[in-house]
Amino acid sequence: MKKHITFEKQVIATMISIYCRKQHCKSKNLCKDCYQLYRYSTKRLNRCPFGESKPACQYCKVHCYEKAMRQRVRDVMAFAGPRMLYQHPIMSLKHLCQSKFTKAWSLKEYRQNDG
User: What NCBIfam families has UniProt attached to this entry (predicted)?
Assistant: First the structure.
Protein backbone atom coordinates (compact mmCIF):
# COMPACT_ATOMS: atom_id res chain seq x y z
CA MET A 1 0.00 0.00 0.00
CA LYS A 2 1.30 3.44 -0.92
CA LYS A 3 0.40 5.43 2.17
CA HIS A 4 3.39 7.78 2.24
CA ILE A 5 3.25 8.72 -1.45
CA THR A 6 -0.53 9.16 -1.24
CA PHE A 7 -0.12 11.48 1.74
CA GLU A 8 2.58 13.49 -0.06
CA LYS A 9 0.21 13.92 -3.01
CA GLN A 10 -2.50 15.19 -0.65
CA VAL A 11 -0.08 17.66 0.91
CA ILE A 12 1.13 19.08 -2.42
CA ALA A 13 -2.45 19.28 -3.72
CA THR A 14 -3.52 21.17 -0.60
CA MET A 15 -0.58 23.55 -0.78
CA ILE A 16 -1.11 24.28 -4.47
CA SER A 17 -4.80 24.84 -3.80
CA ILE A 18 -4.09 27.35 -1.02
CA TYR A 19 -1.52 29.13 -3.16
CA CYS A 20 -3.75 29.30 -6.23
CA ARG A 21 -6.80 30.51 -4.30
CA LYS A 22 -4.85 33.31 -2.61
CA GLN A 23 -2.57 34.30 -5.49
CA HIS A 24 -4.43 33.59 -8.74
CA CYS A 25 -8.15 32.95 -8.50
CA LYS A 26 -10.87 32.78 -5.88
CA SER A 27 -12.57 29.63 -7.19
CA LYS A 28 -12.13 26.11 -5.85
CA ASN A 29 -10.67 24.99 -9.18
CA LEU A 30 -6.99 25.44 -9.90
CA CYS A 31 -5.88 27.80 -12.64
CA LYS A 32 -4.14 26.30 -15.66
CA ASP A 33 -0.59 26.93 -14.35
CA CYS A 34 -1.29 25.54 -10.90
CA TYR A 35 -3.03 22.50 -12.35
CA GLN A 36 0.04 21.82 -14.51
CA LEU A 37 2.26 22.12 -11.44
CA TYR A 38 0.00 19.70 -9.56
CA ARG A 39 0.09 17.18 -12.42
CA TYR A 40 3.87 17.48 -12.69
CA SER A 41 4.34 17.01 -8.93
CA THR A 42 2.14 13.92 -8.75
CA LYS A 43 3.89 12.43 -11.77
CA ARG A 44 7.25 12.95 -10.07
CA LEU A 45 5.98 11.40 -6.83
CA ASN A 46 4.75 8.36 -8.77
CA ARG A 47 8.22 7.95 -10.26
CA CYS A 48 10.25 8.53 -7.11
CA PRO A 49 13.09 5.99 -7.16
CA PHE A 50 12.83 5.55 -3.37
CA GLY A 51 9.12 4.70 -3.40
CA GLU A 52 7.49 4.51 -0.01
CA SER A 53 10.82 4.98 1.79
CA LYS A 54 11.43 8.33 0.09
CA PRO A 55 13.03 11.07 2.13
CA ALA A 56 11.70 14.62 2.06
CA CYS A 57 12.56 16.03 -1.36
CA GLN A 58 14.63 18.85 0.11
CA TYR A 59 16.96 16.33 1.76
CA CYS A 60 17.20 13.91 -1.16
CA LYS A 61 20.36 13.43 -3.23
CA VAL A 62 18.27 12.73 -6.35
CA HIS A 63 16.45 15.79 -7.65
CA CYS A 64 13.54 14.59 -9.77
CA TYR A 65 12.15 18.04 -10.53
CA GLU A 66 13.39 20.25 -13.34
CA LYS A 67 15.03 23.39 -11.98
CA ALA A 68 12.17 25.74 -12.95
CA MET A 69 9.51 23.43 -11.50
CA ARG A 70 11.51 22.96 -8.32
CA GLN A 71 11.53 26.73 -7.84
CA ARG A 72 7.78 26.93 -8.45
CA VAL A 73 7.16 24.26 -5.81
CA ARG A 74 9.44 26.10 -3.38
CA ASP A 75 7.44 29.30 -3.94
CA VAL A 76 4.17 27.45 -3.35
CA MET A 77 5.48 25.81 -0.18
CA ALA A 78 6.91 29.05 1.18
CA PHE A 79 3.54 30.74 0.73
CA ALA A 80 1.20 27.89 1.64
CA GLY A 81 3.22 26.20 4.38
CA PRO A 82 2.49 28.71 7.16
CA ARG A 83 -1.17 28.94 6.09
CA MET A 84 -1.54 25.16 6.30
CA LEU A 85 -1.07 25.33 10.07
CA TYR A 86 -4.35 27.25 10.33
CA GLN A 87 -6.34 25.62 7.54
CA HIS A 88 -5.14 22.00 7.87
CA PRO A 89 -3.35 21.70 11.23
CA ILE A 90 -3.29 17.90 11.48
CA MET A 91 -2.02 17.44 7.93
CA SER A 92 0.63 20.12 8.36
CA LEU A 93 1.89 18.70 11.67
CA LYS A 94 2.03 15.19 10.23
CA HIS A 95 3.93 16.50 7.20
CA LEU A 96 6.33 18.45 9.42
CA CYS A 97 7.01 15.41 11.61
CA GLN A 98 7.60 13.18 8.60
CA SER A 99 9.93 15.77 7.06
CA LYS A 100 12.01 16.06 10.24
CA PHE A 101 12.14 12.28 10.63
CA THR A 102 13.27 11.78 7.04
CA LYS A 103 15.85 14.55 7.44
CA ALA A 104 17.42 12.70 10.36
CA TRP A 105 17.22 9.40 8.46
CA SER A 106 18.71 10.96 5.31
CA LEU A 107 21.61 12.54 7.19
CA LYS A 108 22.35 9.23 8.91
CA GLU A 109 22.30 7.41 5.55
CA TYR A 110 24.56 10.06 3.93
CA ARG A 111 27.10 9.78 6.74
CA GLN A 112 27.16 5.98 6.48
CA ASN A 113 27.61 6.11 2.69
CA ASP A 114 30.29 8.81 2.81
CA GLY A 115 32.35 7.30 5.61
Answer: PRK10410.1-2 (NF007714)
Please answer whether residues 20 and 37 qualify as being in contact, where contact means their C-beta atoms are separated by less than 8 angstroms. no
List Cα–Cα distances, 73 to 11, 77, 108, 112, in angstroms: 12, 6, 26, 30
Long-range contacts of 4-10 (CB under 8 A, 24+ apart): 4/52, 4/53, 4/54, 4/98, 5/45, 5/46, 5/48, 5/51, 5/52, 5/54, 7/94, 7/95, 7/98, 8/45, 8/54, 9/41, 9/42, 9/45, 10/91
Instruction: Give the N- to C-terminal CA distance of the chain in Å, as an integer.
Output: 34
Total number of domains in the chain:
1
According to the model, what pLDDT value does residue 115 have? 47
- 69 Cβ contact partners less than 8 Å away, ≥ 6 residues apart: 37, 40, 41
Q: For residue 24, what are the domain limits?
A: 3-114
Tens digits of residue pLDDT in 36-48:
999 999 999 898 8
Residue 113 has phi, psi (to 5 degrees) of: -75, -30
